[in-house]
Amino acid sequence: MSSTKSNSKRIIMALLFLSWTAASFWVGWQSPRLIGGPFVVKDAEVKSAKFYPLDKFVISVPGDEFPHYLLLEMAFKSRSQNAASTLEQADPVIKNSLMKMFSNKHFNELNNAQQFDSLQKEAHSLLSAVLAENDFDIELDDVLFTRMVIQ
Q: Count of alpha carbons within 13 Å of 125, Cβ hemisphere only?
């Protein structure tokens, strides 16, 4: 009986040794995933800018003898993740602000090609302020006029 007990102890010890070795091997093999995760330096995620077109609309512009009409198509450049839904929700505020801005301009001022960049900058600062005032969380990188026809 003592030899049976002795053999059982040896088998149990061998199983424990094999189990311990297998567990140590598995932990060593998985350690980069188990332990290294929080310590691994990750590259900063670069948000790429996307462009969001706005539906075209027509604005009445004062002239010397009679009113003129401005057809405006534009797009917004933004890196914000929620830009599409935010711009859709803010569409009435955006169009209203642009109508006010352009209706205060004279036809000759808008018909001058050299004013194009300054008009885009003015629209960018105006819309950034209006969106912030109305609690729309979006970062506008740029406002681009993609088409501007004055008649």
A: 5
Determine, yes or no, domain membership for 28: yes
At residue 128's C-alpha, the angle toward residues 124 and 130, to 5°, is 115
User: What is the pTM for the complete model shown?
Assistant: 0.66
The pair of three-digit structure tokens given for residue 60, joined into one six-digit string: 């009445």
Same-domain status, 28 and 96: no
For 11, the domain range is 2-39
pLDDT in tens, 11-50: 888 888 888 888 777 766 666 666 655 555 666 666 788 9
**SS3 state of residue 70:** strand
Q: Other CB atoms closer than 10 Å to residue 40's CB: what's the count?
A: 9
Q: Strand 140-150 relative to strand 50-61: parallel, antiparallel, unpaired?
A: unpaired
User: Do 101 and 144 have their domain in common?
Assistant: yes
